[in-house]
């Protein structure tokens, strides 16, 4: 039961949201859990430890990972039925749910904190200077755009007054700033250690401006949770095993991150992110649903105009699989 990983989603599954979850609603193999994830980098030591150590196999579940090319693919993949669940920022899910696009729930988390930054070209050192400038994001409702809107609003800048560019994946957006094809970019904090050398300014960190903002929630189709209760519990239990192991074995965690990033464990690119995750406890070892952070997120989205009203978390959160998994890991 070694986890399987596919690198790219077929284009055919990228259906436009609005078709609902009726497409591809078959439950598939009840002992398999298929999850869509974004490509990790310096955070791989935490996000892939369960896979690396074989914890899913030990828990008796076959996990198949489908690697998404960008955040904009996550919810369409879930809506189409290509995957049982996705790792995605809950903000995009709340926005989609307000439109009635998805029958799904937040069932856990892989990274409850957000190591994120706004990068800008030389001469721009403050978020307020980004008024009427260009910014590389992914999709209008994806995490890069959502967190940028919130951070800009905190500084009195309207996101509507900016030119938004679809800059592709995380590294692509950062490289666009380096190349000078955009004034700024919203991307993970992975690139902070190299920004000065690249001639790029780190204008703001999410952990400073919106410290309670969550990064990755696990969002699952409700029909798949109902059809495969053992698979989802065992998947979450294996995830918890991996997170706890990563915290307890920092050297191995940095080595795994370095292997995935193609560098050494002593590289500042690796050590910066590891220290940030550990120091701010950005990964919950229990893969929990943090309602306080989700409420904080929904409030920010309402204030920034991306939601008309706060979502009903009673309908959009299902903590039962995580509680069952927690009981499995703490007998």
UniProtKB/TrEMBL annotation:
Compositionally biased residues, Basic and acidic residues: 311-323
Ranges for domain SsuA/THI5-like: 46-252
Subcellular location: Periplasm
Any one GO CC term of the record: periplasmic space
The entry's keywords: Signal
Region entry Disordered, spans: 311-331
Domain of life, source organism: Bacteria
InterPro entries according to UniProt: SsuA/THI5 (IPR015168)
Main location: periplasm
Family under the similarity heading: Belongs to the bacterial solute-binding protein SsuA/TauA family.
Protein name per UniProt: ABC transporter substrate-binding protein
Organism this protein belongs to: Actinomadura darangshiensis
């Amino acid at each position: 039961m070694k986890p399987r990983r596919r690198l790219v989603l077929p284009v055919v599954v990228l259906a436009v949201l609005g078709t609902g979850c009726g497409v591809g609603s078959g439950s598939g193999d009840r002992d398999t859990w298929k999850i869509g994830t974004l490509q990790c980098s310096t955070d791989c030591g935490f996000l892939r430890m369960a896979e690396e150590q074989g914890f899913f196999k030990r828990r008796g579940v076959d996990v198949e990972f489908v690697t998404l090319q960008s955040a904009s693919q996550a919810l369409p993949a879930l809506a189409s039925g290509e995957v049982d669940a996705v790792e995605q920022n809950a903000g995009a899910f709340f926005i989609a749910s307000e439109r009635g696009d998805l029958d799904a729930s937040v069932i856990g988390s892989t990274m409850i904190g957000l190591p994120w930054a706004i990068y800008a070209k030389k001469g721009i050192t403050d978020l307020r200077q980004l008024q009427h400038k260009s910014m590389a994001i992914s999709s209008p409702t994806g995490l890069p755009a959502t967190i940028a809107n919130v951070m800009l609003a905190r500084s009195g800048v309207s996101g509507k007054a900016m030119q938004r560019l679809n800059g592709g994946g995380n590294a692509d957006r950062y490289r666009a700033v380096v190349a000078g094809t955009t004034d700024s970019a919203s991307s993970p904090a992975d690139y902070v250690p190299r920004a000065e050398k690249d001639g790029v300014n780190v204008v703001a960190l999410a952990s400073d401006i919106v410290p309670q903002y969550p990064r990755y929630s696990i969002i699952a189709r409700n029909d798949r949770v109902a059809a495969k209760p053992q698979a989802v519990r065992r998947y979450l239990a294996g995830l918890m095993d991996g997170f706890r192991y990563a915290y307890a074995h920092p050297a191995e965690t940095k080595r795994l991150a370095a292997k995935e990033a193609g560098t050494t464990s002593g590289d500042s690119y690796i050590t910066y992110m590891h220290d940030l995750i550990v120091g701010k406890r950005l990964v919950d070892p229990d893969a929990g649903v943090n309602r306080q952070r989700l409420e904080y997120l929904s409030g920010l989205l309402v204030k920034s105009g991306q939601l008309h009203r706060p979502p009903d978390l009673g309908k959009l959160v299902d903590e039962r699989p995580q509680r069952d998994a927690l009981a499995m890991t703490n007998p």
